[in-house]
Amino acid sequence: MAKILIVDDDPQIRDVLRITLKQAGHEVSEAGDGAEGLAKARNGNIDLIVLDIGLPEMDGLQVCRRLREDVETPVLFLTARDDEIDRVLAFELGGDDYVSKPFSPRELAARIKAILKRVGPEPAKSGLSRGVLKLDPERHLCTVSGESLALTGREMDLLAHLMARPEHVATKAQLVDAVYGPSFHISDRTLDSHLRNLRAKLTKAGCHEAIETVHGVGIRMGACQSR
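Above: the chain sequence. Below: its structure as tokens.
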């Protein structure tokens, strides 16, 4: 059972989601606007947030941007629009998934289950190390030169997949299959945005040249050395 926060200004959508998620065994809390949602997300020990982009006053993208200043809780975005720009921006801000309205409650529950599984324990990938970079996906921990680095669930999955075979060059299609699932369809721009965010976080933390692009082939781990 997970504690899930629904942030949507439409009470009917909140009702549908609450019923669906409670039937799946989750504990549910709700917020009808961005400010309330941000406060509950920061103070409520939440495992996952279902966040509507089209909120009044403070929209979902603004909520996520402010949330990511101090919280890495997984976020599944809801939107009435199916615009690639919105999708890319949502992922660049640290979103973990994106569902367009109208949606199937069963599909959304399955997406939530997949996110929770990704950010949950992965014992086989525990204890990965490369240069100054250490990763423990089982405990969702990443350190650079001994200092903790906050990563989203997607970023953790990407890094764990690359670190598990550091000399192997993974194609973008292989990364999508391994991290998002073989039936999950995303654009190259979305994957690139996740990789760009991950590179930026690692570089800022002092782990330089951590992820290399092999032009025309794919992506692999770099030396992960400090300067």
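The radius of gyration is 17 Å.
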